[in-house]
TrEMBL record:
Transmembrane segments: none annotated. This is Oxidoreductase. InterPro entries: Hydrogenase_assoc-protein, NADH_UbQ_OxRdtase-like_20kDa, NiFe_Hase_small_N_sf. Keywords: Oxidoreductase. Signal peptide: none annotated. Gene3D superfamilies: NADH:ubiquinone oxidoreductase-like, 20kDa subunit. Residues 13-177 form the NADH:ubiquinone oxidoreductase-like 20kDa subunit domain. GO terms for molecular function: iron-sulfur cluster binding; oxidoreductase activity. Pfam families: Oxidored_q6.
Amino acid sequence: MKKKFAFYWAASCGGCEIAVLDINEKILDVIKNADILFWPVAIDTKYRDVENLPDEYFDFCFFNGSIRNSEQEHLAKLLRKKSKVLVAFGSCAVEGCIPGLANLYRKEDILKRGFIETESTDNPKKVLPQKEISYNSEKMELPEFYSQVFPLDEICEVDYYLPGCPPPTGLIINAMEKIFANENIPKKTYLAPTKSLCDTCERNKTFPKKMPKIKRMIEIQPDPNTCFLEQGIICLGPATRSGCKNLCINANWPCTGCMGPTPEVSDQGAKMISALTSILLLDEEKKNYEEFYKILEEEINKIKDPIGSFYMYSLAKAILNKRRGE
Protein backbone atom coordinates (compact mmCIF):
# COMPACT_ATOMS: atom_id res chain seq x y z
CA MET A 1 0.00 0.00 0.00
CA LYS A 2 1.36 3.40 -0.95
CA LYS A 3 2.34 5.84 1.77
CA LYS A 4 0.66 9.22 1.99
CA PHE A 5 3.16 12.05 1.63
CA ALA A 6 2.88 15.78 2.43
CA PHE A 7 5.37 18.54 1.72
CA TYR A 8 5.12 22.12 2.93
CA TRP A 9 7.19 25.30 2.75
CA ALA A 10 7.09 28.07 5.33
CA ALA A 11 9.69 30.88 5.56
CA SER A 12 12.06 29.57 2.90
CA CYS A 13 13.40 30.25 -0.59
CA GLY A 14 12.05 27.27 -2.54
CA GLY A 15 15.44 25.58 -2.80
CA CYS A 16 14.23 22.57 -0.83
CA GLU A 17 11.55 21.92 -3.45
CA ILE A 18 14.21 22.04 -6.15
CA ALA A 19 16.35 19.65 -4.10
CA VAL A 20 13.54 17.08 -4.15
CA LEU A 21 13.41 17.30 -7.95
CA ASP A 22 17.20 17.02 -8.05
CA ILE A 23 16.97 13.38 -7.00
CA ASN A 24 16.31 12.91 -10.73
CA GLU A 25 15.07 9.45 -11.73
CA LYS A 26 14.71 8.50 -8.06
CA ILE A 27 11.57 10.63 -8.10
CA LEU A 28 9.99 7.65 -9.88
CA ASP A 29 10.62 5.57 -6.75
CA VAL A 30 8.82 8.22 -4.72
CA ILE A 31 5.82 8.06 -7.06
CA LYS A 32 5.93 4.26 -6.93
CA ASN A 33 5.92 4.14 -3.14
CA ALA A 34 3.93 7.22 -2.14
CA ASP A 35 1.03 9.41 -3.17
CA ILE A 36 1.90 13.10 -2.84
CA LEU A 37 -1.33 14.52 -1.45
CA PHE A 38 -0.29 17.94 -0.18
CA TRP A 39 2.43 20.09 -1.76
CA PRO A 40 1.39 23.74 -2.28
CA VAL A 41 4.18 24.46 -4.76
CA ALA A 42 2.89 21.73 -7.10
CA ILE A 43 -0.67 20.80 -6.09
CA ASP A 44 -3.67 23.07 -5.55
CA THR A 45 -4.80 21.53 -2.28
CA LYS A 46 -6.64 23.88 0.08
CA TYR A 47 -5.86 24.25 3.76
CA ARG A 48 -9.43 23.32 4.61
CA ASP A 49 -8.95 20.01 2.80
CA VAL A 50 -6.10 19.19 5.17
CA GLU A 51 -8.03 20.45 8.20
CA ASN A 52 -10.87 18.02 7.39
CA LEU A 53 -8.58 14.99 7.18
CA PRO A 54 -8.38 12.48 10.05
CA ASP A 55 -5.47 12.89 12.46
CA GLU A 56 -2.26 11.12 11.38
CA TYR A 57 -3.64 10.76 7.87
CA PHE A 58 -0.26 11.43 6.24
CA ASP A 59 2.35 8.75 6.81
CA PHE A 60 5.09 11.37 6.69
CA CYS A 61 5.51 15.07 6.03
CA PHE A 62 8.62 16.94 4.93
CA PHE A 63 8.30 20.45 6.37
CA ASN A 64 10.79 23.04 5.12
CA GLY A 65 11.09 26.64 6.18
CA SER A 66 11.27 28.43 9.50
CA ILE A 67 8.30 30.02 11.27
CA ARG A 68 7.87 33.78 10.93
CA ASN A 69 4.11 34.35 10.93
CA SER A 70 0.83 32.97 12.24
CA GLU A 71 -0.08 31.18 9.00
CA GLN A 72 3.17 29.21 9.10
CA GLU A 73 2.63 28.35 12.76
CA HIS A 74 -0.91 27.16 11.99
CA LEU A 75 0.31 24.89 9.18
CA ALA A 76 3.16 23.54 11.30
CA LYS A 77 0.78 22.52 14.09
CA LEU A 78 -1.83 21.29 11.61
CA LEU A 79 0.62 19.08 9.71
CA ARG A 80 2.04 17.81 12.99
CA LYS A 81 -1.46 16.73 13.95
CA LYS A 82 -2.21 15.20 10.55
CA SER A 83 1.13 13.37 10.12
CA LYS A 84 2.48 10.22 11.72
CA VAL A 85 6.04 11.38 11.03
CA LEU A 86 7.14 15.01 10.74
CA VAL A 87 10.58 15.72 9.29
CA ALA A 88 12.27 19.11 9.65
CA PHE A 89 13.54 19.34 6.09
CA GLY A 90 16.41 21.72 5.41
CA SER A 91 18.31 24.27 7.43
CA CYS A 92 15.42 26.75 7.68
CA ALA A 93 13.22 24.22 9.49
CA VAL A 94 16.10 22.72 11.47
CA GLU A 95 17.78 25.90 12.73
CA GLY A 96 16.23 29.00 11.17
CA CYS A 97 18.84 29.47 8.41
CA ILE A 98 19.05 32.77 6.49
CA PRO A 99 15.57 34.01 7.59
CA GLY A 100 16.82 33.68 11.17
CA LEU A 101 19.29 36.52 10.61
CA ALA A 102 16.28 38.84 10.76
CA ASN A 103 16.29 38.19 14.52
CA LEU A 104 18.98 40.88 14.65
CA TYR A 105 16.30 43.48 13.93
CA ARG A 106 13.03 44.58 15.45
CA LYS A 107 9.84 43.67 13.61
CA GLU A 108 8.98 47.34 13.17
CA ASP A 109 12.35 48.10 11.57
CA ILE A 110 12.00 45.19 9.13
CA LEU A 111 8.57 46.38 7.97
CA LYS A 112 9.72 49.99 7.75
CA ARG A 113 12.72 49.04 5.63
CA GLY A 114 10.78 46.69 3.39
CA PHE A 115 7.75 48.87 2.72
CA ILE A 116 8.99 52.45 3.14
CA GLU A 117 12.76 52.88 2.97
CA THR A 118 13.83 50.64 0.09
CA GLU A 119 15.09 52.68 -2.85
CA SER A 120 12.57 51.23 -5.32
CA THR A 121 9.49 51.59 -3.10
CA ASP A 122 6.86 54.22 -3.94
CA ASN A 123 4.85 54.52 -0.73
CA PRO A 124 4.35 58.24 0.07
CA LYS A 125 1.63 57.52 2.64
CA LYS A 126 3.98 55.14 4.46
CA VAL A 127 1.35 52.40 4.60
CA LEU A 128 2.48 49.26 6.44
CA PRO A 129 0.84 45.80 6.33
CA GLN A 130 -1.92 45.40 8.89
CA LYS A 131 -3.22 42.21 10.42
CA GLU A 132 -6.78 43.25 9.61
CA ILE A 133 -8.46 45.98 7.54
CA SER A 134 -11.99 46.72 6.32
CA TYR A 135 -12.70 47.64 2.71
CA ASN A 136 -16.17 48.16 1.23
CA SER A 137 -17.68 46.51 4.32
CA GLU A 138 -15.46 43.48 3.79
CA LYS A 139 -12.94 42.43 6.41
CA MET A 140 -9.59 41.25 5.07
CA GLU A 141 -6.82 39.64 7.08
CA LEU A 142 -3.12 38.99 6.73
CA PRO A 143 -1.08 36.54 8.84
CA GLU A 144 0.46 38.11 11.92
CA PHE A 145 4.16 38.90 11.41
CA TYR A 146 5.99 37.65 14.52
CA SER A 147 8.76 39.48 16.33
CA GLN A 148 11.29 36.71 15.62
CA VAL A 149 12.00 33.62 13.52
CA PHE A 150 11.57 30.17 15.08
CA PRO A 151 12.94 26.78 14.01
CA LEU A 152 10.21 24.19 13.52
CA ASP A 153 10.85 22.26 16.75
CA GLU A 154 10.16 25.39 18.81
CA ILE A 155 6.61 25.36 17.44
CA CYS A 156 5.75 21.66 17.43
CA GLU A 157 7.33 18.27 18.04
CA VAL A 158 9.64 17.05 15.28
CA ASP A 159 10.42 13.38 14.68
CA TYR A 160 13.50 13.65 12.45
CA TYR A 161 15.86 16.26 11.08
CA LEU A 162 17.31 16.49 7.57
CA PRO A 163 19.81 19.39 7.55
CA GLY A 164 21.38 21.31 4.69
CA CYS A 165 20.69 24.37 2.55
CA PRO A 166 19.23 22.58 0.74
CA PRO A 167 19.58 18.98 1.98
CA PRO A 168 22.00 17.04 -0.26
CA THR A 169 20.24 14.75 -2.72
CA GLY A 170 22.01 11.68 -1.35
CA LEU A 171 20.62 12.33 2.12
CA ILE A 172 17.12 12.93 0.72
CA ILE A 173 17.21 9.61 -1.13
CA ASN A 174 18.55 7.82 1.95
CA ALA A 175 15.84 9.33 4.16
CA MET A 176 13.07 8.33 1.76
CA GLU A 177 14.42 4.80 1.43
CA LYS A 178 14.43 4.43 5.21
CA ILE A 179 10.85 5.69 5.41
CA PHE A 180 9.64 3.45 2.58
CA ALA A 181 11.34 0.46 4.23
CA ASN A 182 9.63 1.24 7.57
CA GLU A 183 12.98 1.27 9.35
CA ASN A 184 12.77 1.78 13.09
CA ILE A 185 14.70 5.02 13.44
CA PRO A 186 15.04 6.52 16.95
CA LYS A 187 13.07 9.73 17.33
CA LYS A 188 14.98 13.04 17.12
CA THR A 189 17.56 11.44 14.80
CA TYR A 190 19.43 13.64 12.34
CA LEU A 191 19.31 11.80 9.02
CA ALA A 192 22.89 12.80 8.24
CA PRO A 193 26.45 11.76 9.21
CA THR A 194 27.75 12.65 12.66
CA LYS A 195 31.35 13.49 11.77
CA SER A 196 32.50 17.05 11.22
CA LEU A 197 33.22 18.34 7.74
CA CYS A 198 36.94 18.48 8.56
CA ASP A 199 36.89 14.72 9.22
CA THR A 200 35.86 14.11 5.61
CA CYS A 201 37.87 16.88 3.94
CA GLU A 202 40.81 15.97 1.70
CA ARG A 203 42.59 19.10 2.93
CA ASN A 204 42.56 17.72 6.45
CA LYS A 205 46.20 16.63 6.14
CA THR A 206 47.10 20.33 6.10
CA PHE A 207 44.76 21.25 8.99
CA PRO A 208 46.66 23.97 10.85
CA LYS A 209 48.20 23.89 14.26
CA LYS A 210 48.13 27.64 13.93
CA MET A 211 46.35 30.22 11.79
CA PRO A 212 48.08 33.30 10.36
CA LYS A 213 46.43 36.66 10.03
CA ILE A 214 42.80 36.62 8.93
CA LYS A 215 42.20 37.12 5.22
CA ARG A 216 39.11 37.44 3.04
CA MET A 217 38.41 35.48 -0.10
CA ILE A 218 38.59 38.65 -2.21
CA GLU A 219 42.16 39.23 -1.05
CA ILE A 220 43.84 36.01 -2.15
CA GLN A 221 43.62 33.16 -4.63
CA PRO A 222 43.34 30.20 -2.23
CA ASP A 223 45.46 27.10 -2.79
CA PRO A 224 42.99 24.27 -3.62
CA ASN A 225 45.14 21.72 -1.79
CA THR A 226 45.63 23.57 1.49
CA CYS A 227 43.25 23.99 4.43
CA PHE A 228 41.48 27.33 4.28
CA LEU A 229 42.29 28.01 7.93
CA GLU A 230 45.97 27.46 7.20
CA GLN A 231 45.63 30.20 4.59
CA GLY A 232 43.93 32.59 7.03
CA ILE A 233 40.41 32.15 5.65
CA ILE A 234 37.54 31.45 8.03
CA CYS A 235 36.03 28.03 7.22
CA LEU A 236 33.36 26.49 9.46
CA GLY A 237 34.47 22.92 8.80
CA PRO A 238 35.52 22.26 12.44
CA ALA A 239 32.02 23.16 13.72
CA THR A 240 29.87 21.77 10.90
CA ARG A 241 28.29 18.38 10.27
CA SER A 242 29.43 16.47 7.19
CA GLY A 243 27.12 14.96 4.57
CA CYS A 244 27.30 17.57 1.82
CA LYS A 245 30.10 15.77 -0.06
CA ASN A 246 32.25 18.85 0.52
CA LEU A 247 30.66 20.66 -2.42
CA CYS A 248 31.86 24.13 -1.42
CA ILE A 249 35.34 22.93 -0.51
CA ASN A 250 35.65 21.13 -3.84
CA ALA A 251 34.74 24.40 -5.56
CA ASN A 252 37.60 26.06 -3.61
CA TRP A 253 35.20 27.94 -1.35
CA PRO A 254 35.21 27.72 2.47
CA CYS A 255 32.39 26.05 4.37
CA THR A 256 29.79 28.51 5.66
CA GLY A 257 28.05 25.96 7.91
CA CYS A 258 24.76 25.05 6.21
CA MET A 259 24.69 21.46 7.54
CA GLY A 260 24.51 22.74 11.10
CA PRO A 261 26.58 21.65 14.09
CA THR A 262 27.84 18.18 14.94
CA PRO A 263 25.84 16.23 17.56
CA GLU A 264 27.93 17.24 20.58
CA VAL A 265 27.73 20.96 19.78
CA SER A 266 24.86 23.10 21.08
CA ASP A 267 25.95 26.41 19.53
CA GLN A 268 27.65 26.22 16.13
CA GLY A 269 28.95 29.78 16.09
CA ALA A 270 30.40 29.58 19.60
CA LYS A 271 32.10 26.30 18.68
CA MET A 272 33.73 27.90 15.64
CA ILE A 273 34.84 30.95 17.60
CA SER A 274 36.42 28.60 20.15
CA ALA A 275 38.21 26.66 17.40
CA LEU A 276 39.43 29.87 15.81
CA THR A 277 40.83 31.35 19.00
CA SER A 278 42.78 28.16 19.71
CA ILE A 279 44.85 28.53 16.51
CA LEU A 280 44.82 32.25 15.64
CA LEU A 281 48.09 34.21 15.95
CA LEU A 282 49.88 31.65 18.11
CA ASP A 283 53.26 33.02 17.00
CA GLU A 284 52.28 36.43 18.32
CA GLU A 285 51.54 35.13 21.84
CA LYS A 286 55.24 35.40 22.67
CA LYS A 287 54.92 39.18 22.67
CA ASN A 288 53.86 41.13 25.74
CA TYR A 289 50.17 41.29 26.55
CA GLU A 290 49.48 44.84 25.34
CA GLU A 291 51.26 44.32 22.03
CA PHE A 292 49.57 40.95 21.45
CA TYR A 293 46.13 42.33 22.33
CA LYS A 294 46.58 45.18 19.85
CA ILE A 295 47.51 42.76 17.06
CA LEU A 296 44.62 40.45 17.98
CA GLU A 297 42.14 43.32 17.96
CA GLU A 298 43.33 44.35 14.50
CA GLU A 299 42.75 40.83 13.20
CA ILE A 300 39.31 40.49 14.80
CA ASN A 301 38.27 43.79 13.22
CA LYS A 302 38.97 42.21 9.82
CA ILE A 303 35.89 40.03 10.35
CA LYS A 304 33.45 42.46 8.74
CA ASP A 305 30.32 40.43 9.50
CA PRO A 306 30.79 38.31 12.66
CA ILE A 307 27.18 37.10 12.83
CA GLY A 308 27.10 36.26 9.14
CA SER A 309 30.47 34.53 9.43
CA PHE A 310 29.67 32.33 12.42
CA TYR A 311 25.85 32.18 12.52
CA MET A 312 24.74 32.47 8.89
CA TYR A 313 22.42 29.47 9.23
CA SER A 314 22.11 28.87 12.98
CA LEU A 315 21.35 32.20 14.66
CA ALA A 316 17.70 31.34 15.42
CA LYS A 317 18.92 28.17 17.18
CA ALA A 318 21.82 29.79 19.02
CA ILE A 319 22.00 30.35 22.77
CA LEU A 320 21.68 34.10 22.08
CA ASN A 321 19.21 33.78 19.24
CA LYS A 322 17.87 37.29 18.79
CA ARG A 323 18.48 40.96 19.43
CA ARG A 324 18.54 41.94 23.07
CA GLY A 325 17.34 45.41 24.05
CA GLU A 326 18.21 48.43 21.94
